[in-house]
Design a protein that fits this description.
Oligomer: single chain
Number of strands: 3
Structural class: mainly alpha
Helix content: 55-70%
Distance between the termini: 108 Å
Order of helices and strands: EHHEEHHHHHHHHHHHHH
Shape: rod-shaped
Length: 291
């Protein structure tokens, strides 16, 4: 046997760095078939087997399964096509692993109950279609009938290649969307917006919280005449609802503020300016004028 052109299983294994057992397996599978057999029945391989086995080893190291490898070495599909399909599959796995890591990070930081942990685990495993359905159900329950622009402004869109912070924000936001108390409060706030403009769900412009934030002056004494002037301006504004204190407290509910923070992180928007200090100051000033 000419060692330069024909190789036994052992010689082929040594040349390619693959075990004899693996060579025999690929040979039995027809992926690296022998060129011939010796009179004693031992398999021998040609130079083509060295190239094929090297390719097989590389593809296996990249994680391709035997069916895909067989198609490549048999030239039923191109290597580029298989690589593209495999890269897409790996991307799905990477996104799944990121979501799972976000869950583990949240578990480590929050110490959830078994029930909360089960919910977080389910959220992390949602497919893109299931995520879209969860978002659609929340928006329908909380903001049905609102101006489409408002609904879009409350819609999270997790990018195809999210960073760790966006993944962690998605898990927390999705958990909020499952909180029926939060959903009900969001709906009640939407109804208050509707009442503030005399019917319909298109919200007033500007939003009364934005008016408060613009006019509030934290440096002023809430009991001062200047503060009273600010209160008079806000309460006379067309966007002011009848139940202004209750409305402002609902609009600055910690869960709603957190939703907006997480929404901005997921959508890569600038972080929202916290309205709570201005609203708290205004409510103190309002209570002074009513006393």
């Amino acid at each position: 046997m000419d060692g330069d052109t024909l190789f036994s299983i052992g010689e082929l294994a040594r040349r390619t760095g693959v075990t004899v057992k693996a060579v025999r397996f690929y040979s039995d599978e027809g992926i690296v078939p022998p060129l011939d057999r010796t009179p004693a029945g031992h398999r021998v391989y040609g130079l083509d087997a060295v190239a094929r086995l090297g390719l097989v080893r590389t593809l296996r190291d990249l994680g391709l399964g035997l069916p895909a490898i067989r198609k490549v070495v048999d030239r039923e599909v191109s290597l580029a096509e298989v690589a593209a399909a495999h890269a897409e599959a790996l991307e799905v796995q990477i996104r799944t692993l990121r979501l799972r890591r976000a869950v583990l990070t949240a578990v480590a930081g929050r110490g959830p109950t078994p029930k909360e942990l089960d919910l977080m685990h389910k959220l992390a495993r949602l497919s893109a279609a299931e995520r879209d359905r969860l978002i659609a159900d929340f928006l329908d329950a909380a903001y049905r009938g609102l101006d489409p622009g408002v609904v879009r402004s409350m819609t999270p869109v997790l990018p195809d290649d999210p960073d760790d912070a966006q993944v962690a924000a998605w898990v927390e936001l999705a958990e909020l969307m499952q909180d029926q108390g939060f959903v009900a409060d969001a709906r009640r706030l939407a109804e208050r917006v509707s009442a503030a403009r005399g019917g319909g769900f298109a919200p007033p412009r500007p939003h009364i919280v934005a008016v408060v934030r613009e006019k509030a002056d934290l440096a002023l004494d809430p009991a001062s005449p200047e503060a009273r002037s600010i209160v008079d301006h806000v309460t006379a504004h067309p966007a002011c609802p009848d139940d202004l204190p209750a409305y402002l407290r609902a609009a600055t509910d910690p869960r709603r503020i957190r939703y907006l923070e997480l929404l901005a992180r997921i959508n890569a928007w600038p972080p929202p300016e916290p309205p709570v200090p201005a609203v708290e100051w205004f409510l103190r000033a309002l209570s002074r004028t009513e006393s």
